Amino acid sequence: MTSRHGLEIRAATAAEAPGLAVLLAAAGRPIEPRELAARLEAIRGGAGTALVALEWGPPSGLVVLHWYRRLEEARPVAQVTTLLVGAEDRRRGIGRLLVKAAAQAARNAGCGMLELAAGEDPSLAAFCLATGFAAAGQRYLRPLRKAG
Q1: Model confidence at 2, in pLDDT bands (50, 70, 90)?
Q2: What is the pLDDT of residue 131?
Q3: pLDDT tens-place string over residues 108-117
Q4: Strand 48-54 and strand 8-11: pairing?
Q5: What is the CATH number of the domain that holds 30?
Q6: How confident is the model over 58-74, as pLDDT tens digits?
Q7: Is residue 8 situated within a structural domain?
Q8: Contact 46, 135 (CB under 8 A)
Q9: How far apart are CA 52 and CA 41, in angstroms?
Q10: For 105, what's the count of Cα atoms within 13 Å in the CB-facing half-sphere?
């Protein structure tokens, strides 16, 4: 999917791992490029996708989503597990374009809903509301293995 001003949004591949590792590290989520490449390939082979926003240099943004079935929903739900735009690329519409591309990928996968957990980040919550999401409660997590 090509968009305005030379920005391209497409499926992320292992080849983007080094640039995405820099983007993730700047956001406080460091992952080694080799491990990131393996994770991107695993996502491609599973029930989900990773989309990258590219211009002329390193990746500008990333959205990762996974779809799954819920008893309450007739169609699968796509959950955005990562939405990230580089600090220098924010406020240019890249996040909106990533959400739009994610929604299209979810529709193509037969999903009926897109969800995103914004947590306590007020700017992300405002972004979600501005891009058509509605607030829908809290989320709780429980690790399956003891930290050690």
Answers
A1: very low
A2: 86
A3: 999 999 998 7
A4: antiparallel
A5: 3.40.630.30
A6: 899 999 999 999 998 89
A7: yes
A8: no
A9: 14
A10: 26
